[in-house]
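Teaching assistant's notes for section 4

Start the section by putting this record on the projector. Ask students to predict, before seeing the second block, whether Endonuclease will look compact or extended. Collect guesses on the board.
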Amino acid sequence: MNKIKQLVAQLDLVNQLLLTRVSLEDNAHSLQFFMQLKSVSQKVSLAEKNWQVKNACSPISSEK
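Reveal the predicted structure now:
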C-alpha cells in the first residue's frame, strides 16, 4: 500500500509540473503575440504620422 501512495504522489507531482509547463508556454505565446501586436501598432502609427506630414506638405492640401 505504501508503494501505491508513493506512485500516486509522484503522479500528482508530474501532473503539477506538466500543468506549470503548459501555463508557462501559454504565457510565452501570449507575450510573443502582444509584442508583435505592439510592433505592428507602432509601425502603423509611424506610417500615419508620415502620411500626415507628407499630406500637410503637399501643394494640394494647402489649396483647400
